[in-house]
TrEMBL record:
One of its GO terms (cellular component) is cytoplasm. This is Ubiquitin carboxyl-terminal hydrolase. Its EC number is 3.4.19.12. Residues 649-690, 724-764 form the UBA domain. Gene3D superfamilies: Cysteine proteinases, DNA helicase RuvA subunit, C-terminal domain, Zinc/RING finger domain, C3HC4 (zinc finger). The keyword Ligase does not apply. The lineage of its organism: Eukaryota, Metazoa, Chordata, Craniata, Vertebrata. Residues 333-858 form the USP domain. GO terms for molecular function: BAT3 complex binding; cysteine-type deubiquitinase activity; cysteine-type endopeptidase activity; K48-linked deubiquitinase activity; proteasome binding; protein-folding chaperone binding; ubiquitin binding; ubiquitin protein ligase binding. Keywords: Autophagy, Cytoplasm, Hydrolase, Isopeptide bond, Metal-binding, Phosphoprotein, Protease, Repeat, Thiol protease, Ubl conjugation, Ubl conjugation pathway, Zinc, Zinc-finger. Zn(2+) binds at residues 208, 211, 228, 241. SMART domains: UBA (SM00165), ZnF_UBP (SM00290).
Amino acid sequence: MQRRGALLGMPGGRKMAAGDLGELLVPHMPAIRVPRSGDRVYKSECAFSFDSPNSEGGLYVCMNTFLAFGREHVERHFRKTGQSVYMHLKRHVREKVRGASGGALPKRRNSKIFLDLDTDDDLNSDDYEYEDEAKLVIFPDHYEIALPNIEELPALVTIACDAVLSSKSPYRKQDPDTWENELPVSKYANNLTQLDNGVRIPPSGWKCARCDLRENLWLNLTDGSVLCGKWFFDSSGGNGHALEHYRDMGYPLAVKLGTITPDGADVYSFQEEEPVLDPHLAKHLAHFGIDMLHMHGAENRLQDNEIKPRVSEWEVIQESGTKLKPMYGPGYTGLKNLGNSCYLSSVMQAIFSIPEFQRAYVGNLPRIFDYSPLDPTQDFNTQMTKLGHGLLSGQYSKPPVKSELIEQVMKEEHKPQHNGISPRMFKAFVSKSHPEFSSNRQQDAQEFFLHLVNLVERNRIGSENPSDVFRFLVEERIQCCQTRKVRYTERVDYLMQLPVAMEAATNKDELIAYELTRREAEVNRRPLPELVRAKIPFSACLQAFSEPENVDDFWSSALQAKSAGVKTSRFASFPEYLVVQIKKFTFGLDWVPKKFDVSIDMPDLLDINHLRARGLQPGEEELPDISPPIVIPDDSKDRLMNQLIDPSDIDESSVMQLAEMGFPLEACRKAVYFTGNMGAEVAFNWIIVHMEEPDFAEPLTMPGYGGAASAGASVFGASGLDNQPPEEIVAIITSMGFQRNQAIQALRATNHSLERALDWIFSHPEFEEDGDFVIEMENNANANIISEAKPEGPRVKDGPGTYELFAFISHMGTSTMSGHYICHIKKEGRWVIYNDHKVCASERPPKDLGYMYFYRRIPS
């Protein structure tokens, strides 16, 4: 049995003197550090589990690395690193002492709380109180020294302990609450002038007084004018009429319509040029006939699980109005919402319901944890395993004990359990360096799914790659309409994007009548009619997917000229798990994201064998393998180089054209950037060349610049081993139609200068492949990147195209930039709803309103 020192004492009860404490710590002093600026101090979550100071065993913070470990994992860190001094943190939760009348004693400041931790929202603060405890623990003997102990501890240890206890959470930027807490009170709020002009604001049907916009509308709190805002990062657009009105009239405060709830609203001060708090907002709104207590937000704010922009959609998808039975145990653990993190939670619940992912990570837990790097918080496989174990183990999803249930029934109240896990560490890692996922804004679940697949590919465990189950090959057949000749190509994909066939709606008459009634209600400022949703047959969407589509700017190699072309897509292989995305989101004429609110009768059993690719058919003639001629304007080279140096001028219209094809947004931006704004067609060629690369969907990053003499090379990073030119510059030249080897040889002959390489190519039209050059390429240390001789094809798990639905993710809201995501998964023969931390048996799974559907192959 391990020996433990008594708290501030020795065995036998003899009190340890101050000198004895110092003597005990002397051998360990070199390992004790004071946190510096930039150090991440983890004191709320274990690196390997979701244990916290609230857990039974508390949390151990290493006084050297400032990593935290639960009781089950601290010994592993001690054995691996030899770090022996840890600060043990424990938060005790107790029921408050009752007064003589039976009620809780009056509240008073609790000086026993000193940890910068979140309080448990599931516990009523009127009934419970917290007490924090901290002590130093010295391994391997587990000597314990209570804190604070300023008089008896060496000064360095006291300073280090103080710094750890007062340090801020490393996840502070992820917490949306901090934004709201930092909002200042407007200096105009107390004495705001409000005109008695008889203006009354209706509950809906708002429109800008100076234009026809019905989104991003702001109510001026002085005169009641409703005007549009400007274009913001969250894609809410406007023409800036609210700001113009302030400049004309000088009225300082405005509230955003659609954000008003009983808890507050978004208020902006034009004079102070920042969001503010208005302590008298209820009074100011009542002046215009708005009762805050009866208002519900109509647009998404920070907490996406509290705002319901479309009541009918929210109620149906969340199965409101039905008594849902909570589910507990392994596989029924929820994920707490960090503020617009539901897109991540829904995708991860679906991912870890797949056996291949369970085996790859949770099945290999001992090996992954034992061989994790010294900082496991920055290791993808460790964090995936931690999350998977948290979701599947059942440790964080336990039902209330029978005595608590009886007490709840007797008191006719519900005492929530400590269930669900907070994915802060996981989100921080998988979203780092990504400008969108690292923010607190709502994101597209489909984009995050592809981002996750990319991370899995890049961090595969040996030869095991669970994302293989999603990968399939798409055969694209392009036909020249004039010559009827064809070209067949293959590409890799991970999901099937299904268009919404709006023209095939089966309730067109109802839709027309609803639209007329809605417009009339808006004009007359009456309540809107009950929503009528378009009903689209799934077969029509599948038919739209398989139909030929026109190819813009098609260049026919048979005609050596531009011509009309059509493209059809088929499955060259069927994946083991088919992910189907319904393309509900599009862009309006004003580039504001919009959503098709439709009902599609998605099948439980899916057969797409008729979409199997057939390859070149008898009687078909292939298009010649000739690249289009490159016509480069006089200023093209300068423009290319300027574009590469300044990424702020990326042609967003080309980016959106590519994004509409279904490619990740960041990949589209890189494609347009690295092809010098030469149009969507050239950028599309870049995408085809690079879509197999592991960082294909990663954000565009710009390394530091070198001298002007090697501008081309410096833009793309180091020159590479053995004078190997940067892959990005090679891609630019090959996307212009030149051979790959020709591009590499030109760059190597010109010291990787893009401009000189183009001149070299035009001055060497007689270029022929050099055999020695090819051999040198194959022997290059980077041959796995640059060699294309007999490439290994992508790993696919082909089989029959018959599938069964087992999960789907639904979205509520008007665009991917707002709203809320929920996941339904079929487990043990019944549907289960995962709504953030709440996990319940589903009564009416809304399969017709989903956004992403997960199908598993039915064995033949």
